[in-house]
Amino acid sequence: MEYAAIIVFAITTCVTPGPNNAMIMASGLNYGIRRSLPHFSGICLGFPVMVIAVGLGIASLFEQYPALHILLKLIGALYLTYLAWKIATAPVSGIGESRGKPFSFLQAAAFQWVNPKAWVLAIGATVTYTVISDSYVLQVLSIALIFMVFGAPCILLWLWFGASLQRLLQQPNTVRSFNIGMAALLMLSLLPVFSELYDQLGN
Description:
Number of helices: 7
Helix content: over 70%
Strand content: under 5%
Largest sheet: none
Distance between the termini: 38 Å
Oligomer: single chain
């Protein structure tokens, strides 16, 4: 295995915008770092578990049943659209005092399974950086560990950035505008997914 290549892949994909980062950043602004830690932990542990599951067999189901992959992608895209709406319309009473609740650990971990970017990364990493051999299971576990170790600081950076904006965005209307912007960013990250779904369902 090319560990250096996997590390670079993990860092670049985890630090770039996507559903997880948009949502953890919004959580940091609205709830602060401490209340967002379960959300953060759910991402950091939930995605590596997903990598292991995909690497050890779930991906083969999609090869046998392509419709299952399309269905899961559609459900994920619709759910993320719903979450974008929830972020944009979240009631805000004051900085750090949003009346909603941040994601729990289990919610954030389960969210990975409807996150299109997570599926792309999990499948892409296991297909690209593994070879079929006696050490295949160890390779998959190593990839999951790399994502956990090197992905966590990237996600924490987004959480910290969101929380740091609390000092700049002091008015509820400004926080609401930020939430709308994060919802828009979330929807922008879904455009390739909707485009692919349109092509797949149109054929």
